[in-house]
UniProtKB/TrEMBL annotation:
Organism: Hibiscus trionum
Entry GO MF terms: calcium ion binding
InterPro entries xrefs: EF-hand-dom_pair, EF_Hand_1_Ca_BS, EF_hand_dom
SUPFAM superfamilies attached to this UniProt entry: EF-hand
Protein keywords: Calcium
UniProt protein name: EF-hand domain-containing protein
Domain EF-hand, chain residue ranges per copy: 43-78, 87-114
Length: 119
């Protein structure tokens, strides 16, 4: 029975990636999992530009609210719809509901100020 549990535990640990197993003090055959936190690195301006360009799905050179929502979701925003709306409020100078090339730099700077990070 112990051999079966140890093989299952070692298989699970192999699939989890960034985990370390530490034996408990009481029973050396039991293992507990300790998650290691990965280092987060602030996202760069070029990376933000690339993400927004990638989410211009219809390639019209304009970012709609839905495209912004998808881009912010990929950045890890907790509420991408709200963030997209706020980005439009901040960067959409002409009020047409889209971010064009002239407004793109303002959108990128707004996004960088939010402090998104890459894990």
């Amino acid at each position: 029975m112990i051999n079966i549990l140890s093989s299952i535990t070692s298989t699970q640990n192999g699939m989890l990636g960034d985990v370390a197993s530490v034996p408990k003090c009481i029973d050396k055959s039991c293992q507990r999992v300790i998650w290691r936190k990965r280092a987060s690195v602030p996202i760069t301006e070029d990376q933000v530009r690339g993400i927004f360009l990638r989410y211009d799905t219809n390639k019209d050179g304009l970012l709609s609210k839905e495209e912004l929502k998808n881009a912010f979701a990929s950045l890890g925003s907790r509420m991408p719809g709200v963030r997209a709306w706020l980005a439009l409020q901040h960067a959409d100078v002409n009020g047409d509901g889209f971010i064009n090339e002239a407004e793109f730099d303002k959108l990128v700077k707004y996004t960088l100020k939010r402090g998104y990070k890459i894990n």
